[in-house]
Write a structure and sequence with these properties.
Helices cover 0% and strands 59% of the residues. By secondary structure, the chain is an all-beta fold. Strands 2, 4, 5, 6, 9, 10 and 11 form a seven-stranded mixed sheet that branches. Strands 1-3-8-7 form a four-stranded antiparallel sheet, with no helix packed on it. Strand 9 and strand 10 form a beta hairpin. The model has no long low-confidence stretch (mean pLDDT 96).
């Protein structure tokens, strides 16, 4: 089956940095877009950043210039480098990938990680 395994979350002081990683594994034929969402306490889940299989990126306005998304297609892994972290970045961060797999009938379907907590203290 397909699974996404996240790592790199934790507690950091304002102004610090963290790098999140997410590796997809299982019965994967190919992966299209990958990205990160986050959900802060009392708020809706929001998209943070996406990256296509060709490396084209997109960011939500609050993280532009501070976060960088990248991927290693050979490892089926997506990264989120987070710099200049702020308390408002505190959230559970979820990895996703558009995965083509035989378990989905050979078509692309969104797969999700279980989330990793990022906490930024003032």
């Amino acid at each position: 089956q397909v699974q996404l395994v996240e790592s790199g979350g934790g507690l950091v002081q304002a102004g610090g940095s963290l790098r999140l990683s997410c590796a997809a594994s299982g019965s994967i034929i190919s992966i299209n877009a990958m990205g990160w969402y986050r959900q802060a306490p009392g708020k809706q889940r929001e998209l943070v950043a996406t990256i296509t299989s060709g490396g084209r990126t997109n960011y939500t306005a609050p993280v532009k210039g501070r976060f960088t998304i990248s991927r290693d297609n050979a490892k089926n892994t997506v990264y989120l480098q987070m710099n200049s972290l702020r308390p408002e970045d505190t959230a559970v961060y979820y990895c996703y990938a558009e995965v083509r797999s035989l378990v989905y009938g050979g078509v692309f379907r969104a797969s999700w990680g279980h989330g990793t907590q990022v906490t930024v203290s003032a």
